[in-house]
Amino acid sequence: MRLFYDVPAVYLHRDPVDFRKAINGLVVIVEQSMELSPYAPALFVFTNRRCDKLKIVYWDETGFCLWYKRLEKARFKWPRRVDEEVVALTEEQLNWLLRGLDIMKMLPHQQLNYVAV
What is the dihedral of CA 40, 46, 103, 101, to 10 degrees? Predict the structure, then answer.
């Protein structure tokens, strides 16, 4: 099952947030802390302190949507030891994160773009 279609960008907020925040509170974080537009065609990903819950906020051109996942036993492998407060992910890395993999250690093959033989 594909959760999101045509994901142009994924932005992960590195630091945990208070999960009592709903859409409005998370959108404020996107604007003020992440310094991004919440109306951009992108997914904005947040976690709680225990890393057992995840929220994704996005604008679908008619309103904001909130996607929520709670793990019963495990924890998300959240990249906290990075310098940037905002971490840009690929759609593939988001899927890895949702499946419980460490996105900072999983690297795909390097893409090669040749012009001629």
Answer: -130
Token pair 């947030």: residue? 17
Q: Which residues contact 51 (CB under 8 A, 6 or more apart)?
A: 16, 75, 76, 77, 78
- List C-alpha distances in Å: 112 to 8, 108, 116: 21, 12, 12
Query: How far is Cα of residue 55 from the mean position of the Cα atoms in its chain?
Result: 8
pTM of the model: 0.82
CB atoms within 10 A of CB 50: 11
- pLDDT of residue 37 exceeding 80: yes
Domain assignments of the chain as residue spans, ordered by start: 10-98
The least confident of 2-11, 23-32, 59-68 is: 2-11
Q: Return d(Cα 69, Cα 113) in angstroms, integer.
A: 37
CB 77 within 8 A of CB 94: no
